[in-house]
Every structure is written in C-alpha cells, then in structure tokens.
Amino acid sequence: MSLAFLHAHDGAEPHSDAVWAVNWTNADTVLSISADGVIKQWDSISGQVSRSRPPHTLGLVSLSVDPTGKLALYNTLEGLTCLWDLEDGELKGSFESYARGPGAETTEPSWSVSLNPRGGTYASTGGSGNVTIHSAEPGSFGERRATLTSGRSKFGMHCKYSPDGSRVAMSSEAGQIFVFDVASSSIQAAYSSHAMAVRSFAWSADSTLLLSASEDKRLILHDVRVSSSGKPGSGAVATLSGHSSWVLSTDISPDNKLAVSGSADKTTKVWDIGARAAVSTVQEQGEVWSVSWRPKPPAHGTAGAYVTGGEDGVVRWWRSAGAG
Amino acid sequence: MRSLVFPRVSKTPSARPFAQLFRVIDLIHEALVDGVPVTKRDIYYKDVQLFRSQATVDRLVDDLAATLQLTRADLNVRASSKGLMCGSGVTMHMQSGETLELCDGDASLIPPSEDIKRFAVAQTLAWVLVVEKEAVFQTLCRLRLATHETLPGSGLIVTGKGYPDVATRQLVKTLADNLPARVPILALVDGDAYGIDILSVYKHGSTRMRHENSHLAADRVQWLGLWASELASLGIDKDALLPITKHDEKKARSLLKRENLPARWRKELQYMLFSRRKAEIEVLGAARATQESIADLTQAASFSHCDFNRERAGGSPGTPLSRYLVKKIGDACTESGHSSED
C-alpha cells in the first residue's frame, strides 16, 4: 500500500536560517523556530505569518506548545527560556537558565524544554542528563522546583511530557530513553533500544506509545502503557528502518495509525505503524529537522496532513492525496 | 587589570607574587643593560623554585610590557620559535647576514621578527595558507602543495602548531600588510570552537597580547575551511564526525558570547552545537567518492596516459585533502583577483 502526500504550500516568508522545530497546534496554527533566532506563528490555510517575535541573538533550539495552542514555550541556544502568549503576543515569562543562581548551586543551561499539559510547570534537560522541573507561572517563571535524576550524565537531547501530563520522558546522546512518573518523581522505565543518540521522540495522543528517532537511522516504537498494577509496558515493539542517515524528528498521527519522520538524508517518510513499513518518501531541499502532524483527526478517507521544517529555512505543509 | 597587594592576610606567606615580579624585572633589566636577549624560558629557568611554573613568567612579562606600553621585544625578551613554514618564492635575509631560502618540500622554523632584516617575495606568489595543525602542515609539505600545478601560482604554507606564537603572528601580519590584494591569505582550521578561536587570534589578536594588536592582528586573513556545513557536499557521512566534548561545548558557548562575531562563525558554531558534532580536518580522509572525485580520476587516467615523463602524477587527484584545498585556494585566488581589479 502506498499513500501519496502532496505538497500543499510553503510558508510565505522563509526563515533566514535553518528551521529547527515546527509544531502544528490544537488551535490549527503552526509555530516554527529557527537558527536565525526568530519564532513565527503561521496560519495553516494561507501560509502567512500571523505573529512573530523580534530575533534573539542566538538560534532557538526547542519549542513546546500547550494543549490549547495559545501558549508557546521556547528556548535559545544559550539557555534563555521564554513563554510567549499567542493571544496577546506578549512574553509572559523569561528565564536565564545559564545564570548562576543564589547560593552557588551548580546550574546548567537548558537545552530541550516541554510544557506540562496540565499547566503550572515545564520540564527542561541539558548537559547533566537529568530532567529539571521549573515553574511556568508568570510570577515565578523558571524557578527550579525539582530534579528527576536519570542516574546517567549523558547530554539530554530531548524531553517531553506525555499528553496526559502524568509522565515526562527524556532521551540522551547515548541513546537511552527514560520515562519518569511526575507524581512520584521516580523513573518508571528506561529503554536502551538505541546505541546512538536519540535526537527526538514523540508520544501518541493517548500516551500509550513512544516513537524514538535516532542517529542510528532507525525509529523504534515503544509500548509505554502503564497497567493498573503499575507494571510498565513491554518496551520496544517495532523498528522502522529505511532512512539512509540520522533520523532527526518524528511525530505520531492523531489516530495512532501513521508516523512521519524527517531525516538528515533530506527526506521525509510516512510510515504505517501497523504494517511497520514506509508508505511515502518525499525528497526535501535539505536536512529535515522537524515534522509535526495536524492534531485534528482527518476527514474520512484522507490520511491527514503534516508540516515540516528543515535546513533551507522554509516551513512546508503537506496533505494526503485522498482515499488510497 | 591585576593588582598585587602586600602584606595580605592569608594562610601562606604573601610575599611570593612580589618576589616573582621583582625578579622578572631584575632579569629583564640585566638583559637590557647587557644587550643579551633572553627568552621567557630562560627567565623561568633562572629561578624555578620561585616561579614554580612557566605560565607565571609568561603572564608577568606580558603584563609588564602592557603596563609600560612597550612590546616584549623592547624589553629584550625574545620570542622562541614554534611555527613552521614551507613554500616557494620567499627568501628571508636575516640580521646575522644569513639567507633563508624557503623550499616547497621541507619545513623551516619561523624566526622571530627581530631577527629578520627583510624578506623578498617573488611575483609568482599567488596564495598564503595558514594551517592550524602541524600534522596537516607536514602532509601538505610532503604533497608539495605549495607548487601544485593546478593552482594559479606558487604558495606559502605556514603553521603555528595550534595557538600561534608571536613570531608566527608577526610573519602573517607582515605578509598581510605587504602582499598585493590579489594574493589571498587563507586559514585552514578545524571546524570546532578551538579552530575558530585560533582563526580569531590570527585575525583579531589574542586577549593576552591585545596591547600589541596593531602589529599582530591580520584582519585580511580569510577562513578557508573546514566548515561543518560543506561536509555533506564533500561526500562525508555525518557518522564520521566526532562528537563534541564538554570542553568544546563550553568554548563554543563562550565564543558565541563575544561581540562582533562574524555571521559565518556564529552560523558554524550554532550548527556544531545543535548537531553536537565537530568537523576536524582529518575527517576529509573519510570522504566517499563523489562526482568530482570520479571526474578527477578519469582526468588523471588521461594525463598519465599521454605524458610518461611527469615526476609525480601532476594530474592525479591526490588525497581528498589536497583536492579540497586545490579547489578552494583556486576559487579564493580567482575571487581576490577579481576584487582587486575593481
């Protein structure tokens, strides 16, 4: 079976440097951040920029959006974390994670950040390999509240809360993935399915699956269900191979049937999760740093839509061609 | 700005920094009065017990020179030579009366500038290449890159063996000030934070010697490579790149904090931090066959077929490194030639 995905349109104004993350929000807008230090909000139908912020000195490396699509959390290369309110366009919080705090505690600049879907806090990861929970309230934005230790000191490349807010996962440069239970601040599961860096991963919308994208050119699907007895899910259940270089990012479709992945081999692939096979490969202009599915369930007979961002600085929308 | 305070409340005796300072002043005074130059190493060895480390002497000498607003040479403290050079078309006439003729296959030590009376550069000199690593320099010397036929003219290759010493920087600065605009001065450094910092020392000067920047900083130096962003086009697999270390990361972040950082440098440093890989020059050896290299091979086959007398296979593709440099130096010469015509 193959599914065709067509190029719908490009973003009207490209970024002047690589796009490092994109996010298709529940408000049906798309957010993109770039190495040029700019964050933009796009209208998905027209491809026009609806909001943007003045450029930061350094590039923006991490992006996270709340479930309403109205708040965006992003982090710069040096570790300045900002909370942007998309309704009024104001910055509601900013935190210099690289600044030395009072009491000479060891600080590390944040790298990847993720907003808690239940609100109130955000998670960050960085050089120490641990997950730090910060306050996301405007009054105390950035204050460190807790540290979830992984036991390893490898660089934390990506962290993300599960959509139900009960867990937060972190992937490291050494290839390991840790899933923490938020309530008890303890490790619930640790996966060593990859031996090379896991640059990014995605949760399924119902928080039962975790799909990891690694420099080992593969994506691995993990069953991370938590049974009522507290026993963690079975772990790695499928491997998606086919890319010829690092897999840089991935996302799972809202109905859990498909996955999309962007790679350093300059292609985007769509995978049928059940069949464990690629159903579409699209050639892009440069390395594809980030991919994101449209969260709204697709119309009957279509497979949905996704947005990509890559080295050439252009945000691109893709939609399925229709009933296969 | 440093200040030494005596006496000071401390557990250990606080006279040492003072004693070190006065001893250095004493030795420099002796060198000036006798007219016999000393090196920083000589000063250190005069009283190892007092100084304890070479770095202390280095720092004191530089600080003294800066405070008195003199150069190190004015204090009769000679720089010892570390850098190497090779090439053709350059002849150095020394104060002692000797002549140093550069050769394209063998390296010569770069003498301190105070020992050089003048040096003559042939009209055929078309490019200057400054290389970070000694190992790369020796390879290029062996390959006789300086007189490679496919290049627009002969060249001069210089290395500071890492962070360059004053003698090497003086040589590069003198070349930069005196060579015609059509001769590009190119730097080949690793695509990592340290490489970019070394480039910055040649181009903008170092913090320690900033009081001497007017005769050490050679703004004309251009960054030839290696750029992380061009590796894909050279057929180098991402997995061949080395992961960055915590030191690399710290250095890169501190470089990014500098003001007036050229946009290209910022882009490369950001890319390096984001991909968490660095491009050392040795990675060129891992280049797979690309369209260009296959074309080179077919060209070489046709060359060696029709001319048996060539000593070395002049048309041969050589190593990926020499291929890379020949192309980039050639492009740089063409560009300099055009811009100097305007």
Determine the N-to-C terminus distance of chain B.
45 Å
CATH superfamily of chain A: YVTN repeat-like/Quinoprotein amine dehydrogenase
Can you write the helix and strand succession of chain B as a string?
HEHHHEEEEEEEHEHEHEEHHEHH
Structural class from helices and strands of chain B? alpha/beta
Helix content of chain B: 40-55%
- Summed up, the helix count of chain B is 11
For this structure, the quaternary state is heterodimer
Strand content of chain B: 5-15%
Major sheet strand order of chain A: 1-28-27-26
Cα shape of chain B: globular
Helix content of chain A: under 10%
Domain Spo11/DNA topoisomerase VI subunit A N-terminal (chain B): 17-77
Subcellular location (chain B): Nucleus
Catalytic activity (chain B): ATP-dependent breakage, passage and rejoining of double-stranded DNA
Domain Topoisomerase 6 subunit A/Spo11 TOPRIM (chain B): 127-286
Task: Please give a structural write-up.
Chain A has strands at 5-10, 19-24, 29-34, 39-43, 49-52, 60-65, 71-76, 80-85, 91-96, 110-115, 121-126, 131-135, 144-148, 156-161, 167-172, 177-181, 186-191, 198-203, 209-214, 218-223, 235-241, 247-252, 258-263, 267-272, 277-283, 288-293, 305-310, 315-320. Chain A is an all-beta fold and 324 residues long. Chain A has a single domain, classed as YVTN repeat-like/Quinoprotein amine dehydrogenase (Methylamine Dehydrogenase, Chain H). In chain A, the strands form 7 sheets. Chain A has a 4-stranded antiparallel sheet with strand order 1-28-27-26, with no helix packed on it. In chain A, strands 2-3-4-5 form a 4-stranded antiparallel sheet, with no helix packed on it. A 4-stranded antiparallel sheet of chain A has the order 6-7-8-9, with no helix packed on it. By secondary structure, chain B is an alpha/beta fold. A 6-stranded mixed sheet of chain B has the order 6-3-9-8-10-11, sandwiched between helices. Chain B starts with 15 loop residues before the first helix and ends with a helix. Chain A binds chain B through residues 17-18, 20, 35, 58-59, 61, 77-78, 109, 127, 155, 157, 173, 197, 215, 245-246, 264, and chain B through 237-239, 243, 246, 249, 253, 256-257, 266-267, 270-271, 273-274, 276. Chain B: Its cofactor is Mg(2+). Chain B: InterPro entries: Meiotic_Spo11, Spo11/TopoVI_A, Spo11/TopoVI_A_N, Spo11/TopoVI_A_sf, TOPRIM_Topo6A/Spo11, WH-like_DNA-bd_sf.
